[in-house]
Amino acid sequence: MSAPLVQADCLFLVFDGRIPVDRRTPGIWGNDPGLLKPDNQQCRVSDFAAASFVYAFHRDFAEREYGWGASQFPTARIVNAAGALVARVSYNGKVWPAAPWHPGQVPLLNPYEGQGVTA
């Protein structure tokens, strides 16, 4: 059994495909003015909640501005500084264990928990 993830570990959110980026939100991707970030673009996150938030922010922007849905917007991975897979982020923003999904699996983070939403 592996050691539990310590929130102080250096984590990165890595998108598994190209994503549109809102140029009005400087900082997260540096000063690159490109509209579509290349595959495997990553940004540093502090924890699973931050990774879910960043993912949802870009997902919602892509849906609002470009009409992208689940079939166009990529999933994402959370990796550590060594590049090892720590967790995965699904389209609904839930963070899942690194192991392949199986029925009955419980998310590591459910951003809807406590909000009366069952998404």
H/E element string?
Answer: EEEEHEEE
Mean pLDDT: 79
Overall strand count = 7
- The side-by-side strand order for the widest beta sheet comes to 4-1-5-6-7
**What is the helix tally?**
1
Residues in β-strands, percent:
15-25%
Largest β sheet strand count, sense and barrel closure:
5 strands, antiparallel
- State the helicity in percent bands: 10-25%
**Strand-pairing-aware structural class:** alpha+beta
Label the overall shape: globular
Structural commentary:
This protein is an alpha+beta fold and 119 residues long. Helix content is 16%, strand content 22%. The chain has 1 helix and 7 strands; from the N terminus they run E-E-E-E-H-E-E-E. It has one helix at 48-66, and strands at residues 11-15, 19-20, 36-37, 42-45, 76-80, 85-89, 95-97. The strands form 2 sheets. Strands 4-1-5-6-7 form a 5-stranded antiparallel sheet, with helices on one face. The termini are far apart. The relative contact order is 0.20. The model is unreliable at 1-7 (pLDDT under 50).
